[in-house]
Design brief:
single chain, mainly alpha, two-stranded antiparallel sheet, two-stranded antiparallel ribbon, 9 helices, 59% helix, transmembrane helix, EC 2.5.1.145, phosphatidylglycerol-prolipoprotein diacylglyceryl transferase activity, transferase, Lgt
Length: 267
């Protein structure tokens, strides 16, 4: 068993002002995505400048934050938030839904593209390889918060999390998700998008790969206590929300290669 590193969730405390690691992970994810997008900007559209890119990153970030929070409220714990609406604003305590954030990103992308002469999938193909940076950073934030831990296990790398009332050795599922949704997904999308692909193919690869990774990790991750398992003693809300992504990803890739030849890819 590995010892859980005791990391204070508060990174910086200046009197009553507290800056949490969880919030900093979002800044790291957004900043890293912006830097990578800057490298790919000329290949995506030589007429775009850094100001237009900054606008895109801003609106996508708003989609992530607002969609992620509202998605968690709606998908995972609506009753509790209706009883105490002020909890919705307490994002530093965790409680963000990737699937809600994904919907928020799609809406922001559609809105921004309609005002900048870009199709929805042109922008989504450009954005998709950037997303794993934020996903990976977010999972590190979950780990520091000692939340979203896995099931009890006797594997050598199991950990006892301070937030676990049972104090059992558990799978560090946050690190599994960091490795899959952050590192592996980034590698897949980065190398896949380096070659010319038809429009929608990169978006489809993102949806398919993330959906598969999330579906797998849910088998060792403890579901939210207020929901538990939805069916058959193993099906979780995360798996239910990931299934449409897997099917949609397969459909987008198939449709992309049928409807048009490969286009130039952003390097």
């Amino acid at each position: 068993m590995l010892p859980y590193p005791q990391i204070d969730p508060v990174a910086i405390a200046l009197g009553p002002l507290q800056i949490h690691w969880y919030g900093l992970m979002y800044l790291i994810g957004i900043g890293g995505a912006w830097l990578l997008a800057s490298r790919r900007l000329q290949a995506f559209d030589p007429h775009w400048n850094k100001e237009k890119l900054s606008d895109l990153v801003f609106w996508v970030a708003m989609g992530v934050i607002l969609g992620g929070r509202l998605g968690y409220v709606l998908f995972y714990d609506l009753e509790a938030y209706l009883a105490q609406p002020s909890l919705i604003l307490q994002v530093w305590k965790g409680g963000m839904s990737f699937h809600g954030g994904f919907i928020g990103v799609m809406l922001a992308t559609w809105w921004f593209g309609s005002r900048n002469d870009k199709s929805f999938f042109q922008l989504m193909d450009f954005i998709a390889p950037l997303v794993p940076i934020g996903l990976g950073a977010g999972r590190i934030g979950n780990f520091i918060n000692a939340e979203l831990w896995g099931k009890a296990t006797d594997v050598p790398w199991a950990m006892v999390f301070p937030t676990d009332p049972q104090q059992l050795a558990r799978h560090p599922s946050q690190l599994y998700q960091f490795a899959l949704e952050g590192v592996a997904l980034f590698a897949i999308l980065w190398f896949y998008s380096r070659k010319p692909r038809p429009t929608m193919a990169v978006s489809g690869m993102f949806a398919l790969s993330y959906g598969v990774f999330r579906f797998i990790v849910e088998f060792v991750r403890v579901p939210d206590a207020q929901l538990g398992y939805l069916a058959w003693g193993w099906l979780t809300m995360g798996q239910v929300l990931s299934l449409p992504m897997i099917l949609g990803g397969i459909g987008l890739i198939a449709w992309a290669y049928r409807r048009q030849p490969a286009q130039g890819a952003a390097q």
